[in-house]
Write a structure and sequence with these properties.
Layout (H helix, E strand, L loop, with lengths): L4 E4 L14 E4 L9 E6 L2 E5 L2 H60 L1 H37 L13 H16 L3 E6 L13 E5 L3 E2 L11 E2 L4 E4 L5 E3 L40 H13 L2 E6 L5 E3 L4 E10 L7 H9 L2 E4 L5 E10 L4 E10 L3 E8 L5 E8 L1
Parallel strand pairs: 1-2, 5-6, 12-18
Antiparallel strand pairs: 2-3, 3-4, 6-9, 7-8, 9-10, 11-13, 13-16, 14-17, 15-16, 17-18
Length: 397
Amino acid sequence: MAIQMRRGLKADFDPQKMLPGEWAVSIDSETSNQIVWMCFRAGIVKRMGTYEDFKAQIEEATEDIRELYEVTFNEIKAYMEGLADEAEEYKDTAVSKAQEASGSADAAAASATTAAQEAEAASVSADEASSSADESENFRKLSESYAHGGTGVRPNENVDSSQYYYEQAKRISQGLEGALLPMGTIAFAQLPVVTRQAGYMYNIMDDFTTDNTFKEGAGYTYPAGTNVYYTADGYWDCLSGTLVAGVKGSAESIYRRGFVDITKEDIGLGDVPGRLESLEERVSRLELKIYAVPVEFRLLSKPPINGQAGQTITFICSLSIDSSGLVSKEILEKATDDITWTSSNTTIASVTGHYIRTRDNITGSIYVNILGHKSGNVTVTGTTSNGMSVNCTAVFS
């Protein structure tokens, strides 16, 4: 089927109006309002992410973590610099005490009492030096705690460290990589050569049958417009419900896959007439055959008519029926409904309907609507029940 997409301003977007499998795009001039949505089923509409959205989110998350890491690191650095200054002061004190101890040793030769006093002072200095060493060890453990935790010197240190914040940033980045990223519309034949990365999603423009590169295996048929994405374990997978594995009529022995036509022969009714008409249908058909005979069918619009893909354009033709028999507005309308409309290429454009405006009970103007699916030229042909026809060329850009 063809891709269905709505487009317009974000302020006008109503998710309740979307159909399953349909895309919606806001075309606001403001970048923050340029958004893509997809409808998975009635009432379930999800906003789709773009590469630029993911990149901005990762950059914002990384910047926040880097700022937090920088603040924490600067706090540790300032604290360690303060410890270094204190250690320098303790070193000076130790040198001074050592000098005093040396003087006390000299004095000890003259006075045993003085030597004992200086020895006691040296012991105090040694205790202070030992205390400084213990404090330095505590600061070393504190630095490790802020770096990676696991030391037991701070509460909740395992969730409040540089390593923890780094791992959080990494998990956020990996989580974003798991989202689906639309990569455009391609033909199924191009699928083997496109970039394969987990989460990359492509819309397939034609009907296709799966092969061994698909997660479900080979032999499953999908319609045009199906979305396929590349999985983390190296397969293609389809964004679609499970398809019927196969069908067959009661008179068949083998199940068939794909687009299967079941005929009356397939179900054991080959000897039954193809269509049983009701009395009302038969009378109506005979009434048209007798009374509603077209005598003139001609094109009023000047071809070619022009339009754009996604747009419906209209051309006009005229139909007249035989005025010598029974005529009425209803009979003229029935003759119009009996016209068969065909498009030379339904991939480019298709006929979506028609209506008639009657000038009298004999002649009416028929307005035929054509919906363009993509750029190209088509010829629309209308054929009456008695073989009269008109052709109109339409050009879509």
